[in-house]
Amino acid sequence: MASKRVEQIAAHLNFPKGMLNGQVAIVTGSGQGIGAETARLFANEGAKVVISDIDAAKAKKVAEDINASGGKALAIPGDMLDDKYLSELVKKTAEFGNGKIHIIVNNAGYTWDGVIHKTTDKQWDTIIALHNTQPFKLVRAAAPYFRVKDGEPRSVVNISSTSGLHGNAGQANYALAKAGVTGLTKTIAKEWGPAFGVRANTVAFGHIMTRLTAAKEEGAFVTTPDGQKVALGIPQAQKAAREDGNAAFKDIPLGRPGTATEAASAILAVVSPLFSYVSGQTLSVTGGRNM
């Protein structure tokens, strides 16, 4: 089995039809931002990509754009917090992939910040469920498509954050959830690697330009299942203080935030044949911050 995988990897290094040719990928939270860019890059490399997002219109638009560009994508919108949706997502993805799923990128999520003494149970439970419990349930539901011995590559990527690696004031819920992601990743790698060759890795992002790091005053928000609106972003005064004049991003050696495309490119690298002997690791994509 191992020799067969090595031969396939060697063949793929020529990339005649893309690094992910023939593979089927689920990218959660891919209606916009890093997830959408990840889906686009995967499709460019030959993968059939499932666009999973709670916003149906955005998911369909991403899929339409990929298909119009010659790629293959299917929008399967839904709420990650709904267990029935996870079952539907796996079932429809397998149908789209002719009975196979090769890649899962657990990217969906948002922040719901609050200092420790003011964080509500609802804030806590929602963020833990979204970033830990539901990704676990998705991987568990997809187990029959990963615990196989067909010699084809299988990869799980869980998205984390520097908040999970180093903590962050006002983000006890998010920091715990993103720290927990690394434990889930390592367990998948240890359980499914030996017999089935499944690789699992974590990608931890620093300051990437998305709606989570934009000014809160821009009005981006998400809506919880019960209809509550959660504002996203960093308050303008706090954001301005961090990015003041010549001191902008002074703790980032590259001196700037990352783009969604750069973030997505790191995810592509991790699932590609170039990382075929990398598993159970956390890749920090931070521009050098916290090195």
From TrEMBL:
User: Which UniProt keywords are listed?
Assistant: NADP
Q: Locate the Ketoreductase domain: which residues?
A: 23-195
Q: Which InterPro entries match?
A: KR_dom, NAD(P)-bd_dom_sf, SDR, SDR_fam
**What chemistry does it catalyse, as a reaction equation?**
a (3R)-hydroxyacyl-[ACP] + NADP(+) = a 3-oxoacyl-[ACP] + NADPH + H(+)
List its EC numbers. Answer: 1.1.1.100
Q: Is the NADP keyword given for this protein?
A: yes
Q: Which Gene Ontology MF annotations are present?
A: 3-oxoacyl-[acyl-carrier-protein] reductase (NADPH) activity
Q: Which SUPFAM superfamilies match?
A: NAD(P)-binding Rossmann-fold domains (SSF51735)
Matching PANTHER family: 3-OXOACYL-(ACYL-CARRIER-PROTEIN) REDUCTASE, 3-OXOACYL-[ACYL-CARRIER-PROTEIN] REDUCTASE FABG
| Family statement | Belongs to the short-chain dehydrogenases/reductases (SDR) family.
Please identify the protein, giving its name as recorded.
Answer: 3-oxoacyl-[acyl-carrier-protein] reductase
